[in-house]
């Protein structure tokens, strides 16, 4: 299975596009997209993705380790799995993206972008996921693994897309088992990969921020051991592997407002070195564009992903309010 990762990073097409592993069949579908189907009947399907941003390499290395364990027969696969390396060209060059942020383009939003690498990749991944979920078991999860350049008061956290129904306890508890210290709940749809799978396929989806972004070969993979162990347990045992806890440990937040760069005159009043989850007090000025000003509306709000350099029309940050654990 490591050959899948290496072939993708080299930009090559494998000579063999399907085969047998210990207890499963594998099929290479596209560059960076492979499907693993257990020989035995299963009732769960999982999209497992990494490398949506090309400078976030630790999740790719974690994924390679987990795939190797599957190939060695150390894990008896109990899911139908679609493995996705999101942006192969960006991974090859070590850049976050080639022209546009791929993780803003899903749900058909790619149609608004100029033709290019990321636009084509977003369309392809939507088709690949649609084909997978169209003939896979009905219990659907999507785990999209990332790392971050910006520091964070919660080094490992999850961002969950808008969802009308309650989140199942086993899903949230698995995220905590994977080492996530905070969970952020979106209230409205967006353009991320996990928003797409949740909105269109009712998947239980989470963007997992697992630590610091480093180049290939420079990651301390011991720091990601909780996530790797949780993935191995999940793939081999399913949600039943999650221990029942009486007292959840993750801090929980909901998105209270979005800061959007509305034009060239937009000013973000959050310093570039501000870490994720930094608190701001009610009334503090966050951003402005002419007469339009955004301020902290609640007693305390916490910033996530502030970025004054995004293109006009894109998100320049999120503000969060803490909520009880659901």
Automatic annotation (TrEMBL):
Domain Succinylglutamate desuccinylase/Aspartoacylase catalytic: 44-233
InterPro entries: AspA/AstE_fam (IPR050178), AstE_AspA_cat (IPR055438), Aste_AspA_hybrid_dom (IPR007036), SuccinylGlu_desuccinylase (IPR016681)
AstE/AspA barrel-sandwich hybrid domain span: 251-322
UniProt remark on cofactor binding: Binds 1 zinc ion per subunit.
Binding annotation for Zn(2+): 53, 56, 146
Enzyme class: hydrolase
Catalytic activity reported: N-succinyl-L-glutamate + H2O = L-glutamate + succinate
Molecular function per GO: hydrolase activity, acting on ester bonds; succinylglutamate desuccinylase activity; zinc ion binding
Catalytic residues as annotated in Swiss-Prot or TrEMBL: 209
Record flagged with keyword Transferase: no
Enzyme Commission number, as recorded: 3.5.1.96
Pfam family, one: AstE_AspA_cat
Stated family: Belongs to the AspA/AstE family. Succinylglutamate desuccinylase subfamily.
Function statement: Transforms N(2)-succinylglutamate into succinate and glutamate.
This protein's name: Succinylglutamate desuccinylase
Species the sequence originates in: Mangrovibacter plantisponsor
Gene: astE
């Amino acid at each position: 299975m490591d050959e899948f990762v290496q072939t993708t990073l080299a930009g090559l097409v494998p000579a063999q596009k399907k085969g047998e592993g210990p207890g499963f069949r594998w099929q290479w579908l596209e560059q960076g997209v492979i499907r693993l189907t257990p020989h035995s009947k299963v009732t769960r399907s999982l999209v497992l993705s990494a490398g949506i941003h090309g400078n976030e390499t630790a999740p790719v290395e974690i994924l390679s380790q987990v795939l190797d364990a599957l190939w060695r027969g150390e894990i008896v696969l109990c899911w139908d799995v679609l493995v996705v390396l999101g942006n192969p060209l960006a991974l090859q060059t070590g850049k976050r993206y080639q022209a546009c942020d791929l993780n803003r383009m899903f749900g058909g939003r790619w149609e608004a972008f100029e033709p290019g690498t990321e636009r084509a990749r977003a369309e392809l991944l939507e088709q690949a996921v649609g084909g997978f979920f169209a003939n896979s078991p009905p219990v659907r999860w999507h785990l999209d693994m990332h790392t971050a350049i910006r520091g964070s008061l919660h080094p490992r956290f999850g961002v969950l897309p808008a969802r009308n129904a309650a989140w199942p306890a086993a899903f949230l508890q698995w995220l905590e088992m994977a080492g996530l210290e905070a969970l952020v709940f979106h209230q409205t749809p967006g353009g991320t990969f996990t928003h797409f799978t949740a909105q269109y396929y009712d998947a239980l989806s989470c963007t997992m921020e697992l630590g610091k972004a480093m180049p290939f070969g420079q990651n301390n993979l011991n720091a990601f051991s909780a996530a790797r162990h949780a993935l191995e347990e999940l793939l081999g045992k399913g949600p039943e592997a999650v221990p029942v806890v009486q007292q959840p440990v993750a801090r929980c937040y909901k998105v209270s407002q979005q800061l959007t760069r509305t034009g060239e005159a937009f000013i973000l009043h959050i310093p570039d070195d501000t870490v994720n989850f930094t608190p701001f007090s009610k009334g503090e000025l966050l951003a402005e564009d002419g007469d339009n000003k955004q301020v902290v509306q609640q007693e305390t709000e916490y910033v996530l992903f502030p970025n004054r350099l995004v293109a006009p029309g894109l998100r320049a940050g999120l503000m969060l309010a803490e909520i009880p654990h659901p």
